[in-house]
Write a structure and sequence with these properties.
By secondary structure, the protein is an alpha/beta fold. It has one domain (3-216): Rossmann fold (3-Layer(aba) Sandwich). It is built from six helices and eleven strands. The chain has helices spanning 15-23, 34-39, 51-61, 63-72, 82-85, 186-207, and strands spanning 3-7, 27-31, 42-45, 77-80, 107-109, 118-126, 140-146, 148-150, 156-161, 165-172, 175-178. Strands 2-1-3-4-11-10-9-6-7 form a nine-stranded mixed sheet, with helices on both faces. The chain has a two-stranded antiparallel ribbon with strand order 5-8. Strand 1 (3-7), helix 1 and strand 2 form a beta-alpha-beta unit. It is globular, with a radius of gyration of 16 Å. The protein starts with a strand and ends in a 10-residue tail after the last helix.
Length: 217
C-alpha cells in the first residue's frame, strides 16, 4: 500500500481527506510524526477555516518546516482548500500572516458581485493537460467552499467561472493543489485523489528501484 501522510496540525475536519484516500486503498494516516511524514510516499495538507489561524497552527506544530522539506525534495505533495492557499506568499484575509511562499502570488478575495463564500458545485475549465486531471469525464464537476482564491499564474491547470476565471487547481512538478475539496467531489474528486496516489507510488518506485517495504509492494 502507498503511504500517504495527512498533516495533523490541530485544525478540525482533517480526517475527510484521510478517509477518502483510505477508501482508494492508500495507507493514509493523519499524523504529526516527523519520521512518518519524512518516510511517506506522498504528503497531503488539508485546510479549513481562516488562512491566518491555519498558518499559525501549522507553524506552532512545526508542520510548516516538514511541508517545505517535502516540497523542496519534490516529493508528491497536495494542498487542499486553505491547504492550497497556504502555499502562497500570503492572503488578503489575514495580510499580516505570511504563507509558505512556495507558489508565486497571493490569495485574493473573490470578486465583487458574487456571493461569498462560493459554496456550490462548479465546473472546471481545464487550461492545459495535467496528470492531476487524467481520466476525468467532461464536464468536471467539483465542490467549492471558499471566499478567497489564488491569483492566476502559469501553474494553474484549471479554473472555474465565478464572476470571472478563478484559480481552481495548480500543478508544479510533484506539487499539486486544489481550491475545491476533492474528498467531497464524488467521482471527479476520487479520480483526482487516485491520480495523486498513483503519482506518489510511481515517485517512490523511481526513488527506490527494486526496493520497498512489504506494505508497499
Amino acid at each position: 500500500m502507498t503511504l500517504i501522510a495527512v498533516l495533523d496540525y490541530g485544525i478540525g475536519n482533517l480526517r475527510s481527506a484521510q478517509k477518502a484516500l483510505q477508501h482508494l486503498g492508500a495507507d493514509a494516516r493523519l499524523t504529526a510524526d516527523p519520521g512518518f511524514i519524512r518516510d511517506a510516499a506522498g504528503v497531503v495538507l488539508p485546510g479549513v477555516g481562516a488562512f491566518g489561524r491555519c498558518m499559525e497552527e501549522l507553524r506552532a506544530s512545526g508542520m510548516d518546516e516538514l511541508a517545505l522539506e517535502a516540497i523542496e525534495a519534490d516529493r508528491p505533495f497536495m494542498g487542499i482548500c486553505v491547504g492550497m492557499q497556504m502555499l502562497y506568499k500570503g492572503s488578503e484575509e489575514t495580510p499580516d500572516v505570511a504563507g509558505l511562499g512556495v507558489l508565486a502570488g497571493r490569495v485574493r478575495r473573490l470578486p465583487e458581485g458574487v456571493k461569498r463564500p462560493q459554496m456550490q458545485w462548479n465546473v472546471l475549465d481545464q487550461r492545459r493537460p495535467s496528470p492531476m486531471l487524467e481520466g476525468l469525464a467532461e464536464p468536471i464537476w467539483v465542490y467549492f467552499v471558499h471566499s478567497y482564491a489564488a491569483e492566476l499564474s502559469d501553474d494553474v491547470v484549471a479554473t472555474c467561472d465565478y464572476g470571472g476565471p478563478v484559480t481552481a487547481a495548480v500543478v508544479r512538478h510533484n506539487l499539486w493543489a486544489t481550491q475545491f475539496h476533492p474528498e467531497k467531489s464524488a467521482a471527479s474528486g476520487l479520480q483526482i485523489l487516485t491520480n495523486f496516489v498513483a503519482l506518489a507510488a510511481a515517485a517512490r518506485s523511481a526513488a527506490r528501484p527494486g526496493v520497498g517495504r512489504p506494505d508497499e509492494r
